[in-house]
Write a structure and sequence with these properties.
The chain is globular, with a radius of gyration of 21 Å. Helix 1 packs across helix 2. It is of the alpha+beta class and about 300 residues long. The protein has six helices and 15 strands.
Length: about 300
């Protein structure tokens, strides 16, 4: 579908298009620019291009791709649901969306069966409704959008940090202070593409606030609040402090903890502004695996 508009102001083309076409997210506009689907004066333009007022911009918006993910009747622990959003308590071991090696059994497959066609399409074919992610071996709260308008509002809150996420975890070792903040940029690891690391080179700002909930011999039970949302952020920041999360074989000890699959990390609380303007505060209890770890530590 071809769409044309006239630039009314000066400025970057991605910002101008996002403002002029409120039904399209800025991320979607940038994708169109990256694919060469936006032209001015007969030539494709980049997102940094600044048209002159009066220039005509032409967008070639592709037709929506048919959804190729299969709905699967997988039980969901639904914490909250209405016509705009659904919040679920994801179990440890479940992948959020399909990817190579994980084409089924994901949260998206389960959401498609539960919600039918009521999922936003902003994130494309393989991630309908998904606003943010948590790792496969992290349990806890995750919000999905049921329509594009809700998705855009939630994505904006994620970007300006008003969508607040609080996690609890068990870290290896004893942190000396009772609370603190890690303000260290995170980017792709230079030699292991599957990992992230604290790095100034190509790193993006990342801030994690933490506080001690309980101390044990050789371990610390923590609450962590994300100010930003980088991939593996809490895991990377705690490892950077020298206190990786218990069971994290990527950023901590390579040997798995007997009886514990993956890291002891749980997304416990979620705060956001509902698309209708209501402030929402949701929480879920610690899962059995986490309670079992705490019980063992309390009896050391």
């Amino acid at each position: 579908m071809k769409t044309t508009l006239t630039a009314a102001d000066s400025g970057r083309v991605d910002a101008l298009l996002a403002a002029a076409l409120p039904d399209l997210s800025r991320a979607f506009v940038q994708k169109l620019l990256e694919e060469g689907r936006v032209t001015c004066r007969g030539r494709p333009v980049k997102k940094s291009f600044r048209p002159d007022p009066g220039d005509t911009l032409t967008l070639d918006i592709p037709d929506p791709e048919p959804l190729s993910v299969t709905a699967e009747a997988i039980p969901l622990d639904v914490v909250y649901e209405d016509a705009d959003v659904i919040v679920v308590n994801k179990p440890k071991g479940m992948v959020v969306h399909p990817a190579p090696g994980h084409t089924g059994g994901t949260l998206v497959n389960a959401l498609m069966a539960h919600c039918g066609e009521e999922l936003s399409g902003i994130n494309g074919v393989l991630r309908p409704g998904i606003v943010h992610r948590i790792d496969k071996d992290t349990s806890g709260l995750l919000i999905a959008a049921k329509n594009d308008a809700a998705h855009k509002l939630l994505a904006a809150q994620l970007a300006d940090h008003t969508l607040a996420r609080t996690y609890e975890c068990v870290a290896v070792g004893n942190l000396r202070e009772d609370a603190g903040t890690v303000d260290a940029p995170i980017g792709r690891h230079p030699t292991d593409r599957k990992k992230q690391c604290v790095t100034e080179k190509n790193g993006k700002p990342a801030v994690t606030h933490w506080e001690v909930l309980e101390r044990f011999p050789g371990f610390t039970y923590l609450r962590c609040r994300l100010e930003t949302g980088r991939t593996h952020q809490i895991r990377v920041h705690l490892a950077h402090l020298g206190h990786p999360i218990l069971g994290d074989t990527v950023y901590g000890a390579k040997k798995p903890v007997p009886g514990l699959e993956g890291q002891c990390l749980h997304a416990k609380e979620l705060r956001f502004i509902h698309p209708d303007g209501r402030p929402m505060a949701l929480s879920c209890p610690l899962p059995d695996y986490f309670e079992a770890v705490l019980s063992k530590l309390r009896h050391l």
